[in-house]
Structures are given as C-alpha cells and as structure tokens.
C-alpha cells in the first residue's frame, strides 16, 4: 500500500506565501510523475502542476504560472509546491498525486494518477 501525506497548508493573507510538501510512504514504488491538484468549495478538482522525474519536465496550470513552483526529490518520492503571491481564489484543499506510468497526454486529469493524498487546506484571506 502506497500512502501520500501532504503538509504545509494553512491560513495566509492575500499576497502571502506557503510551501506544501508531499511524501510517499508504504511499499516501495517508483513514480513517473507527481502532481498537485486542488479543489475549491463547490467546484471540481483541478490540476495545478506536475513534475516528471524523466527529464525533469514541469507543467503548470495557467492560473498559477509564474506564482507557483513545483520541485521534488525523485529518490525520496517527495514533491513540494512553493506558492507565492497567493490570491483568495487559490483557496481550497490541495491534493498530492502520483502516477507510476507517464500520465501524458492526460496529466491534467485526475484519472491519470494512481495514488492520492488526503489533502491539506489552504485558505487565502482577502
């Protein structure tokens, strides 16, 4: 059983920063890509960013490009999300996800990922 555990969420003011972390535990597995998704109240879960360990490719949703940075450590199956210039519309539960095989061209879709964390709440006050 693979478990993903997120941490680092919290309450921050408009324009502030937070850093989310996600670590994998349980049985040994090798992920091809790890990603972050988020879900605001009353809305569907949406893609935020992903990082492929093959070639180090990263990809961002347009809404976070230039403000968020995804990074990580392949050997530790750990991924981070540095979030700067946060806005109230960034509020939501942030989920970490991992895919054992290359999820492209469906990397922005939840169904492309095999494992999910329980989520961490991010609230940006105006």
Q: What class would the helix/strand composition place it in?
A: mainly beta
Largest sheet: 7 strands, mixed
Distance between the ends:
40 Å
Number of helices: 0
* Nearest-integer average pLDDT: 94
Poorly predicted parts: none
The geometry reads as globular
Any idea what the radius of gyration is?
A: 14 Å
Order of helices and strands: EEEEEEEEEEE
| Helical content class | under 10%
Give descriptors for this structure.
seven-stranded mixed sheet, 126 residues, 0% helix, mainly beta, single chain, globular
Describe the structure in your own words:
This protein is mainly β and 126 residues long. It has no helices and 11 strands. The protein has strands spanning 2-7, 10-13, 18-26, 33-39, 46-52, 58-60, 68-73, 78-83, 92-99, 115-116, 120-125. The strands form 2 sheets. Strands 2, 4, 5, 6, 9, 10 and 11 form a 7-stranded mixed beta sheet that branches. 35% of the residues are buried.
């Amino acid at each position: 059983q693979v478990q993903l555990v997120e941490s680092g969420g919290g309450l921050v003011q408009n324009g502030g920063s937070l850093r989310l972390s996600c670590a994998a535990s349980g049985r040994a597995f090798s992920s091809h890509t790890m990603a972050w998704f988020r879900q605001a109240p009353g809305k569907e879960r949406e893609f935020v960013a992903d990082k492929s360990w093959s070639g180090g490719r990263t990809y961002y949703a347009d809404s976070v490009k230039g403000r968020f940075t995804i990074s990580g450590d392949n050997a530790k199956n750990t991924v981070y999300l540095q979030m700067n210039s946060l806005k109230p519309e960034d509020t939501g539960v942030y989920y970490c996800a991992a895919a054992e095989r290359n999820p492209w061209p469906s990397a922005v879709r939840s169904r492309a990922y095999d494992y999910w964390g329980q989520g961490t709440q991010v609230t940006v006050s105006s």
